């Protein structure tokens, strides 16, 4: 394998490890809520961060995706933003 090919392969492997290039995942909700466009839409719709987190929490619980540790961490986070 040529040096150029090795560098190319290394760059591809590095890009795959970087979250910004992982097209099969979504950013965390906290990151999304920091986006100015999301904040503007929420303000226009009179939706607060706490309102949205209530809906997300209810949906997660309904889907059965919350484990005890996640619920505890989420409760602490919710108290910080409420």
The number of helical runs is 5
Overall outline: elongated
What's the order of the H and E elements?
HHHHH
Can you give the helix content as a percent range? Answer: over 70%
Fraction of residues in β-strands: under 5%
Strand count, sense and barrel status of the largest sheet are: none
Strand elements, count: 0
Rg, alpha carbons? 19 Å
- Report the end-to-end length measured between terminal Cα atoms: 57 Å
Mean pLDDT: 77
Low-confidence stretches: none
What does this structure look like?
The structure is a single chain. This protein has about 80 residues and is an all-alpha fold. It has a domain of about 55 residues. Helices cover about 70% and strands about 0% of the residues. The protein contains five helices and no strands. The longest helix has 15 residues.
Quick structural overview:
The protein has 82 residues and is an all-alpha fold. It is 71% helix and 0% strand. The protein has a domain at 26-81.
Key traits:
82 residues, mainly alpha, elongated
SSE arrangement:
Layout: H1 3-17, H2 29-33, H3 36-44, H4 49-63, H5 68-81
């Amino acid at each position: 394998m040529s040096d150029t090919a090795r560098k190319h392969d290394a760059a591809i492997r590095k890009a795959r490890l970087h979250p910004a290039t992982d097209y099969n995942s979504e950013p965390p909700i906290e990151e999304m809520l920091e986006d100015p466009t999301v904040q503007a839409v929420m303000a226009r719709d009179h939706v607060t961060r706490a309102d949205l987190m209530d809906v997300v929490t209810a949906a997660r619980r309904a889907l059965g995706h919350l484990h005890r540790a996640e619920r505890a961490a989420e409760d602490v986070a919710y108290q910080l933003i409420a």
